[in-house]
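tmp note - 3-hydroxydecanoyl-[acyl-carrier-protein] dehydratase
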Amino acid sequence: MSKQNAYSREELLQCSRGELFGPGNAQLPAPNMLMIDRITHISETGGRFGKGEIVAELDIHPDLWFFGCHFEGDPVMPGCLGLDAMWQLVGFHLGWLGYEGRGRALGSGEVKFFGQVLPTAKKVTYTIHIKRTINRALTLGIADGSMAVDGREIYTAEGLRVGLFTSTDSF
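out:
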């Protein structure tokens, strides 16, 4: 696999089927849980900490599945889906770096929500700043992230942690 600096929706769907990084390695979830339409930038350097950066986008339209059920008469994207998207991107970065294993979110530090995504919005942009990558008995990515809707930052998360596991049987 060549290291690209951007990925299309179809390439992200390949990743969700286990075709991008190989069987048993980092996968994105399939739709409807795939919360990313494209990665516009991914790097090993750069970002706030100089250890890597990812910028990705999700197109918003009123018929997205969560607007119909969260909440009836008051549709809003669940905040946990934006947080999950940031974990998805940290795990993708580990696979993109060539590390092996299945990704699992392992938590985060402080998370703040100070805005919302409504069906009238157009685009969500996620920005992930890799703080540290550890590859010992466990491969671990630690990052800070933010989510903006139509250019306005509405979520931040510090210390996003994702691990890669060669076996998840006892996880």
